[in-house]
Design goal:
- There is one protein chain.
- The chain contains ten helices and eight strands.
- By secondary structure, the chain is an alpha/beta fold.
- The protein has one domain: Spore Coat Polysaccharide Biosynthesis Protein SpsA, Chain A, CATH 3.90.550.10.
- The strands form two sheets. Strands 3, 4, 5, 6, 7 and 8 form a six-stranded mixed β-sheet that branches. A two-stranded parallel sheet has the order 1-2.
- The mean pLDDT is 92.
């Protein structure tokens, strides 16, 4: 929250979805809201889950752009300024990602920077979800939302939908510090994410009519084989691909 409130760009609405927290979160949110009028807290009546909360946020936004953010990550101080400038300069862009760097549970830098991959939209998810800026009217006017049927890869299908109507892009600047620990959903749910990704790709081909390349099909086959592998093998390959051979990542 501090990393958002201390942004160099100041004119924004800060919508926070409290998904039925059972810890000290409600009190912390109330204290922050009393000190900054830009904060608007929406408390779910019972646990709704990520996708419902994301869609709630989209419906409640009133600004021109929507900046996506998770509760445990840290936004770089000029994130909003840089991404707004890029969107203003390119009105054909509907969704814009950025690079991120990884931190551990204590906020220590892990020395790994990851960029969005826009080479082939069906090879892998092109945008890093927590870094994304979205043109709000592009979603509302085209009735585009996150879909529960693609849980664990809900963002991927949304980018594919957007790519059929508008443009997706990314800047190379690091805009976010992504917190990584042994409780991270991406680590705990790797096989579910892999299966959801395959489902998204299948529907992209047969529902959205996106034509795959030969490489796309090979990657899908490799992902299917990987899905059948033991969980520890999947985790090991993910860590190696994401952080490299020499990265000191212990999970």
């Amino acid at each position: 929250m501090d990393s958002i409130l201390e942004q160099t760009f100041r004119d924004f609405e800060f919508i926070i979805i409290d998904d039925a927290s059972t810890d000290a979160t409600p009190g912390i949110l109330s204290r922050y809201a009393r000190g900054d009028s830009r904060i608007r807290i929406i408390s779910n009546d019972g646990y709704k889950g990520l996708i419902a909360s994301l869609n709630c946020g989209i419906r409640e936004c009133s600004g021109e752009y929507i900046a996506r953010m998770d509760a445990d990550d840290i936004a770089v101080s000029d994130r909003l300024e840089k991404q707004i400038a890029a969107m203003d300069a390119n009105p054909d862009i509907w969704a814009l990602g950025g690079a991120l760097t990884y931190i551990d549970a204590c906020g220590n830098e892990l020395g790994v920077v990851r960029h969005c991959d826009l080479k082939s939209i069906l090879t892998c998810c092109p945008l890093l979800h927590p870094t994304v800026f979205i043109r709000r009217n592009a979603l509302i006017q085209n009735n585009l939302y996150y879909l529960e049927k693609y849980r664990f890869a809900e963002d991927y299908f949304l980018w594919l939908q957007i790519s059929k109507k508008g443009k997706i892009s990314a800047i190379n600047d690091v805009v976010l510090k992504y917190r990584l620990n042994d409780n991270a959903a991406k680590i705990r749910q790797l096989k579910k994410i892999l299966w959801a990704t395959l489902k998204v790709k299948k529907d992209a081909i047969f529902i959205l009519r996106i034509t795959p390349t030969f490489k796309d099909l090979i990657v899908m086959l490799a992902e299917l084989i990987l899905f059948l592998a033991p969980k520890q093998v999947v985790l090991s390959l993910y860590l190696r691909k994401t952080f490299g051979k020499k990265a000191r990542i212990n999970l």
